[in-house]
Amino acid sequence: MSRIEARFGSFRAQRRKALILFVTAGDPDPALTVPLLHGLVEAGADILELGVPFSDPMADGPVIQRASERALAKGVSLRDVLEMVRSFRQRDGTTPIVLMGYANPIEAMGAERFIAAAAAAGVDGVIVVDYPPEECESFAALAKRHGIDPIFLLAPTSTGARVEEVARLGSGFIYYVSLKGVTGAGHLDVDAVLARLPQIRAATSLPIGVGFGIRDADSARRIAGQADAVVIASRLIEELESVPAAQVVERARAFVRPIREALDR
Fold this sequence. Notes:
The protein is built from 12 helices and 9 strands. By secondary structure, the protein is an alpha/beta fold. It has one domain (3-264): Aldolase class I (TIM Barrel, Alpha-Beta Barrel).
């Protein structure tokens, strides 16, 4: 059983909803990534999503694009990201970590080498935005053999056939993109999300996490009424890019605490 599966299993028994928080590895500074991850856990994060910097992040809006650019300017590579996970694991052996990124860095390293290195570092799941499930059978099987959950995206436009394929190939949880757009878009329609989730749940027993457009405690609480987890990314990065480096970890904690409290209510 993966750390992700175990965490969702315990939350299901507790009737608790998971908070998944995203930061880009190396932003605002590589030396801050591991302390920031620990700070997020201390404030209430249940699963950490660590973005692998990439020069053309097609699913990401301007906030995460800027984060990737800052990290790349400091030379952060996929190997550096794995080393950050390894360092995090020296203090925290229980919080699941999901890498989110794009195919090019993985292809450059080689899928088998990447999965083996990720497993050795302590990665629990991978989201590769431009690996569609129809072309991902071997990669998903490889990840599962190493104890890593391949996690796939679904969107408001996903067909019934795509939902079934994602449910078959994926593990850990399903990531539902709540809107037709990129990360950080400001037009979240909560009612539309809540109407869509039962259709997905009918096709899978996997937990469903919802992300893209969730920006505060109120929207997180409303989405969590039907979802198993909420994912917050751009809004957190916006908070962090406006403060000096010395204040980043504490600002992250201050941002996360009221969201955690809203979910627990």
